[in-house]
Specification:
The complex is a heterodimer. Chain A has 11 helices and 1 strand; from the N terminus they run αααααααααααβ. Chain A is an all-alpha fold. In chain A, α2 packs antiparallel against α3. Chain B is an alpha/beta fold. In chain B, a hairpin with a 2-residue loop joins β5 and β6. The chains are: A mainly alpha, B alpha/beta. At the A-B interface, α7, α8, α11 and β1 of A face β1, α2, β7, α3 and α5 of B. β1 of chain A pairs antiparallel with β1 of chain B.
């Protein structure tokens, strides 16, 4: 059973895993979450702008939104991260100092915003047209109608898709290491990879992988839960009620019968 | 069948309807003209019912009146003033529209549905808009259902909320686009009663409907449209009892 021993030593060396555990928890996990959450928040804001532009009646808003989406959705994440991270390094240094960390977050945000923009756009466009018309018919402006009625309904529908996008961002955040991070800035992958190189054993990387799964797997199931709930609707089952009961309830008082034309 | 107002006609809100006049209204979707040179005059406080087969341009006509769809040519006069030269939003505030499929806001309660535009279009305070919304809901017999969401209301109740929502803006004219076509049959009369009550309390109404009984009894004027044109117009008795055109005769023989 040599091969089994080999596998266990290579991937599941308990000592190596246990050694890297504090670093993964204290540095890696924290940084992965900080990067991912920032990228998601900025991505949601940018994505909403892109989505609103994308459904605008004006083509001067629509076309730039389209081009933006095509570029950042079409490029491999690593290309965007390197181009942004290295291309704007000097600019970023003046604002944030030498760390590439903010630029990594920004690059991830741009990628995320292209996907999130599409998610929002689809959600908003799936809202029945009658909703906008009802608002307009009441004298509401297009902007107010979108903000108060249409967009909130659209967002609610795409919450599961947004959680999926967050999962994708968590995984993509591992690519930020390409920009070269300080020791204290390393995210899960980099912490695991460093330890793996140091010990000549893959177990720390496996441990890092487990950390990712701890974040992503529960979220995946949360999405499924959401999905089911939305699909089945939240309407409580109520005993059937006859329409005739409603007719009686209105019980029109026969004070005046309108039978003749005025 | 007679229509009995759910609120005593001597009680409740009285309306001061304005006149509505369509002159040579022509409307098109792209290159396809769906409304051709339509002229209808609705005197203040009266009810005009528009009847006709599907595809006759009835719904398009209503959407032209409040400019949800811009007319190609012609004129729409509200209280004698052209609506085409005014801002659409300010015109729409003065014209209530009730849709076939209600179009209530699903994530708002009945009360919030009515109060939303009061607060955000008229700029009333929260308390004031809720007070008015409650009054209007009571007027359509739904005071008890104020906190229900649309999905917990029947179709008839939803449509009555939609009518309350339009009335809350104090429109000078009400447009109804097949308001009872999506309702279960036993709930139709409740909505028609409500509309008849409005007609009696001074509202100017332009009603697209398939309810011939309603058109005959409540309308002051009935307009028969087909293929985008007005074919025949007049008093209900004239149209229903002595139709002149062949097309109206055929239409009536199909629906009555």
């Amino acid at each position: 059973m040599d091969w089994l021993d080999n596998i266990i030593k290579t991937f599941f060396d308990f000592d190596a895993m246990w050694q890297v555990f504090p670093q993964l928890l204290g540095i890696g996990l924290v940084n992965t979450l900080v990067i991912s959450i920032w990228a998601t928040v900025i991505g949601v804001v940018l994505g909403m702008i892109v989505a609103i532009m994308g459904i605008s009646p004006s083509r001067w808003l629509r076309i730039p939104a389209r081009v933006y989406t095509d570029i950042f959705r079409g490029l491999p994440a690593i290309v965007t991260i390197l181009l942004i991270g290295q291309g704007f390094a000097r600019f970023s240094q003046q604002i944030f100092g030498p760390s590439p960390y903010p630029l990594g977050i920004f690059a991830l945000s741009l990628i995320a915003s292209a996907y999130i923009g599409e998610i929002f756009r689809a959600g908003i466009q799936s809202v029945d047209r009658g909703q906008l018309e009802a608002c307009r018919a009441l004298g509401m402006s297009y902007g107010k109608a979108m903000r108060l009625v249409v967009v909130p309904q659209g967002i609610r529908r795409v919450l599961p898709a947004l959680v999926n996008q967050f999962i994708a961002i968590v995984k993509d955040s591992s690519l930020v290491y390409f920009l070269g991070l300080l020791v204290s800035e390393r995210e899960l992958f980099r912490v695991g990879q460093d330890a793996a190189v140091l010990t000549g054993n893959l177990s720390p990387l496996v441990m890092a992988g487990l950390f990712y799964l701890v974040i992503t797997v529960p979220l995946t199931h949360l999405v499924n839960y959401f999905d089911n709930r939305f699909r089945t609707g939240r309407r409580k089952a109520t005993p059937p009620k006859s329409g005739l009961a409603e007719v009686e309830e209105q019980n029109p008082t026969p004070t005046l019968t309108y039978g003749e034309n005025s | 069948m007679t229509y009995t107002s759910p609120v005593p006609v001597t009680a409740g809100h009285f309306y001061e309807g304005s006149s509505l006049e369509l002159k040579g209204l022509t409307m098109a979707y792209g290159d396809i003209e769906v409304l051709k040179d339509v002229s209808i005059s609705v005197p203040p406080g009266t009810t005009t019912c528009i009847i006709g087969p599907s595809g006759s341009g009835k719904s398009t006509l209503l959407r032209g009146v409040n400019r949800l769809h811009e007319p190609k040519s012609g004129e729409v006069l509200l209280a004698g003033e052209s609506v085409l030269t005014q801002k659409p939003d300010s015109v729409r505030r003065r014209i209530g529209l009730v849709f076939q499929h209600f179009n209530l806001f699903p994530d708002h309660t009945a009360l919030e549905n009515v109060a939303l535009a009061l607060r955000n279009v008229k700029g009333l305070s929260k308390a004031e808009s809720r007070r008015i919304a409650k009054e209007r809901l009571a007027e359509v017999g739904l005071a008890e259902r104020a906190d229900h969401r649309p999905r917990d209301l029947s179709g008839g109740q939803q449509q009555r909320v939609a009518i309350a929502r339009a009335l809350a803006m104090e429109p000078e004219v009400m447009l109804f686009d097949e308001a009872t076509s999506a309702l279960d049959p036993e709930l139709v009369k409740g909505v028609l009663n409500l509309m008849a009550g409005l007609a009696q309390r001074g509202m100017t109404m332009l009603v697209v409907t398939h309810e011939m009984g309603f058109a005959r009894k409540v309308a002051d004027q009935v307009v028969f449209m087909d293929e985008g044109r007005v074919v025949e117009a007049g008093k209900p008795a004239e149209l229903f009892d002595a139709p002149k055109s062949d097309r109206l005769k055929r239409f009536l023989s199909e629906v009555l």
